[in-house]
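Email to the structure team, subject: ADP-ribosylation factor-like protein 16 model.

Hi all, the expression group asked for a predicted structure before they design truncation constructs. Nothing fancy, just the tokens so they can compare against earlier work. One-line instruction: predict ADP-ribosylation factor-like protein 16, return tokens.
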Amino acid sequence: MIICLGPVGSGKTLLLRSLKNSGSIDNTTTAVSTTGTDIFSIKIDEKKYQIREIGGCMAPLWPKYFGGVKKVIYVVDVSNLCQISAACVLLYTVLVNPVLKNVPILLVLTKMDVSYRQMRNEALLMLQMKRLQKELRQKIEITEYSAITEEGRKEILNWITKKVA
Ligand SMILES: Nc1nc2c(ncn2[C@@H]2O[C@H](COP(=O)(O)OP(=O)(O)O)[C@@H](O)[C@H]2O)c(=O)[nH]1
Ligand SMILES: [Mg+2]
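Reply from the structure team: attached below.
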């Protein structure tokens, strides 16, 4: 099982929906923020991957779902600078959990369609990625995404299918 975490409204549901069905996001898609958890079954090259989205408002309960997790996708909304430092603290509390000490992490900087290119560096700075990468033993990869343009979709799918060393 892969889990998808991130603050409320960071774009988890839209990301997983667009990974599941490319082109499924349109103006008629209503966004209801996820309260419990939602499981998305994503088929890549005839193989099925289960990804569980855990609602951002459930952050205190996240660790309940860490058992048996193989990979973590962490979604951060780069268009919302106010949320980024909170996202960083949350990410840190996730990564120090011993259950996840060998689990690869994909940090998805999403809503790139809203932000300017240089937002990436600014966001990484605010997330204190350098420090995180130094202090933590997990392998953290960083990628950019937009559920609107679906730019970056392939990179995420590749990461999902990659064998865990
Ligand atoms: N422009 C833009 N808006 C997005 C993107 N991803 C999500 N959103 C919007 O952000 C809001 C929250 O998205 P949602 O996927 O429900 O967030 P969740 O709470 O993390 O599941 C919704 O209004 C989405 O339409 C994106 O890549 N680009
Ligand atoms: Mg959601």
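Helices lie at 12-20, 81-95, 119-126, 129-135, 153-161. Residues 81-95 form the longest helix (15 residues). Ping us if the truncation boundaries need rechecking.
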